[in-house]
Amino acid sequence: MNDVIIIGGSFAGLAAALQLGRARRKVTVLDTGLPRNRFADRSHGVLGHDHKLPQDILTEARLQLTRYPTIKLVSARAESVSGAIDDFSVLTSDGESLRARRLILSYGVADQIPAVPGFAEGWGSSTCLVPIATALKSPAGIGASSGPAQCRTTTSGCTTTGPTR
């Protein structure tokens, strides 16, 4: 039985696995290989990794985790979770049933791309929903509205959106 199963193997999930591995806990990380930042051309705000490719950061993190024999990385999706504290069961997309005393849910979010011409095509490069992640490295004018969503281009070339109410 695992001490912990982590569902989601991007930055947060791997950081949790690192700390648990250092504490000699038996950990399994389930990851689909589809991190939210897979469309980004660079990652920002990660100490020691600013402006690196997100995939390069993940590759380096996974390599570092190989030093810890109690951490197992599994390329699979968690299809179902059942149980309670001290006895969770996770069924993977490969049909494997895993058990753990604790769970960490680190599977992120799914972006809802608005039906704005050109928005999806620029996703991760010239279009972003989180201006602080990309736009603040260049001077930019970021505005907000209280009405329907509005798109505008900043001086950094990043399209930003306003609230939908």
TrEMBL record:
Q: What Gene3D superfamilies does the annotation carry? A: FAD/NAD(P)-binding domain
Bias class Low complexity marks the residues at 151-165
- Annotated ranges, domain FAD/NAD(P)-binding: 3-126
Record bears the keyword Zinc-finger:
no
Please indicate if the UniProt record lists Magnesium as a keyword.
no
Q: Name one GO molecular function term.
A: oxidoreductase activity
**Region annotation (Disordered) ranges:** 143-165
Q: Which UniProt keywords apply?
A: Flavoprotein, Oxidoreductase
The name this protein goes by in its record: NAD(P)/FAD-dependent oxidoreductase
Native organism is Dickeya solani
Q: What is the lineage of its organism?
A: Bacteria, Pseudomonadati, Pseudomonadota, Gammaproteobacteria, Enterobacterales
